[in-house]
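Try it yourself: sequence plus nicotinamide-adenine-dinucleotide, in.
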Amino acid sequence: MSEHQYDFDLFVIGTGPGGEGAAMQARKGGLSVGVAEKYRQIGGGCTHWGTIPSKALRYTITNTNNVLKNPMFRELGIHANPSMEQLRRGTATIISKQVSMRQSFYDRNDVPVHTGHAKFIDDHTITIDDGEQITSNRFVISTGTRPYRPADVNFDHPRIFDSDTILMLDRKPTSITIYGAGVIGTEYASMFRNIGMKVNLINTRSSLLDFLDDEIVDALSYHLRDQGVVIRHDEEYERIEGLDDGVILHLQSGKQIKSDVLLWGNGRTGNTNALGLENVNLDVNSRGQLEVNGHFQTAREHIYAVGDVIGYPSLASAAYTQGRAAAMHMLGEKDDNFRLHDIPTGIYTSPEISSVGKTERELTAAKIPYEVGQSQFKSLARAQIMGNTVGMLKLLFHRETLKVLGVHCFGANASEIIHIGQAVMDSEDLTLEYFFETTFNYPTMAEAYRVAALNGFNRLF
Ligand SMILES: Cc1cc2nc3c(=O)[nH]c(=O)nc-3n(C[C@H](O)[C@H](O)[C@H](O)COP(=O)(O)OP(=O)(O)OC[C@H]3O[C@@H](n4cnc5c(N)ncnc54)[C@H](O)[C@@H]3O)c2cc1C
Ligand SMILES: NC(=O)c1ccc[n+]([C@@H]2O[C@H](COP(=O)([O-])OP(=O)(O)OC[C@H]3O[C@@H](n4cnc5c(N)ncnc54)[C@H](O)[C@@H]3O)[C@@H](O)[C@H]2O)c1
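Structure, out:
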């Protein structure tokens, strides 16, 4: 029983990274906390049908390809064409490890998990599966998203998938059309091409991932096309026709694209439709998302919302931090020290992409005098040793103060090494000079920072 008349001080709806971050932080701060999860296991979409399964599959594909393309194994006559089931096998083990580890967090911290669909019935009460009633002083909504499914697309057709069902493919299709070239569409395009499928990537916008630095976008487009992905920009679907032997995507431009299967990767929508929000006077936008203030409070100050259900940036990494920040606010502690403005992106295409801070486009528009330093991975010893020489690190820094303003990277280990640049960028004291005044391990991919920093520094006059 909480200090008030409620069952809990805080009740969290959803056990993805957003919910877990909020629940654990609040519990450590001394609040009584309960959570609800409608899926049979905790972990959220992140663990069961989003981040973890897609990244685990990608890792298996990359490793398998590294072996199969290695000249030594070829010489030994090692060839293989693993099935979808074989490629996916490791994923179930990883999910199960994640679930049991995360479940232990709830158990050890005395946070009961109520399995079932939570719905508000009044300001301080929810029901679980329309049965058990639970009261709480505060709430966190961290219910995530589901694929946006337009009514005119038949998702019951066995060859039409969305971003939650695509990993259930029971065989390796010969070809796939991916409609929607956001992060999900682009990552899957890369992954499926790497297992030898013919891939059509249909973009409703005029360039891929336009939130990234232009040079990185150009590199991604070049490498995807070089690998054989067919990319079509500025297209809209007219209809999608499911057949016995394939799927035809009819585009408004008159083009027709037939493939073995189709992945609808065009957008996700917030899981807010059956939450009883009308009973607490909360509204959502056209994408089912909730609006929050800087402390992650909705229009009702005792109801917080974090993670994908509030929209941008819709990342597991950010969801967790937002959950913790919301809990800190409830605890009356400082909640603005989470650097939520500098969230890096890690995009697991081939080549991998990672980025933090300002792009050249943004700096130019803001008339900030900046300079660029670059390092090509092909000249790094570590990249040569790994046989993985595609890539580049680009540092953007202020010409006068030498403060790092943006770090953009593609190639091997991009999403790991970005954090070195992020730390320097966020530091009050460090500047570009850190990278060439500090000794890094050798040979490493991190050496790219020294090379890029010197390259940029030498451009100054
Ligand atoms: C294919 C794919 C790949 C991705 N890859 C990455 C990546 O590489 N890196 C990254 O940072 N992000 C990635 N993301 C995004 C990441 O998965 C999400 O940002 C993250 O899962 C959001 O966490 P969340 O806590 O908001 O919600 P979720 O993880 O979606 O969890 C929400 C939970 O709430 C539960 N729930 C919903 N409604 C109710 C209810 N009424 N009652 C009880 N429970 C409810 C759901 O069952 C679910 O378990 C990817 C997403 C997808 C789809
Ligand atoms: N590596 C990663 O970090 C990673 C990987 C996959 C997904 N994600 C996250 O998952 C989120 C969703 O991925 P995505 O590829 O769908 O991105 P996205 O938001 O770019 O959506 C793709 C397309 O769908 C449209 N759209 C989005 N929501 C819609 C809706 N409800 N109704 C109609 N159209 C809609 C968008 O305008 C866009 O054209 C992203 O925001 C991304 O951050 C991250």
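One thing you can check immediately is this: The first strand starts at residue 8 and ends at 13.
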